[in-house]
Amino acid sequence: GGSFAGEGGWAAIMRSMPFLCSDIVMRIVASLAAVNFEPIVAQLVVTYGDETNRLITAVDITGTISKKLVVVELKCGYPDVTSARMDHVLQLSIGTFMLSKTSSIISELEKASIDCSSPRGMLLYADHSGASLVELSPEQLKLG
After folding, report:
1. What b-and-e string marks burial along 109-133, b requiring 16 or more CB atoms within 10 Å of the CB?
2. What is the pTM of this model?
């Protein structure tokens, strides 16, 4: 397994994968960097339930702001969004809940001194004309 320490941040990611430098990706990166979001991993698989009744999903982007866990749900093709759509709120809240119950991942994050006690949740809407972040309140994040 790898470390969740997140060394290198955005600059290291963009240097190692120059094919990611499309205009929409650059808008996404700029939006997250503007709030001091430090990436950890994308498409993190999380599970909930036992062997016979298990749900599985992937959290789009996991990272930190000031060493606090942040979960980002990325939605592409939505121009000029200023408020969250309910289906996206539910998707983010369920993914965040499932992540919080995936003890093996939470344990690794906590070993890296990341505060996982109350994860923050953000919806990132992006298209070729721009990108906007919508942070959910703790109450909205608990809807799922």
Report:
1. beeeebebeebbbbbbbbbeeebbb
2. 0.84
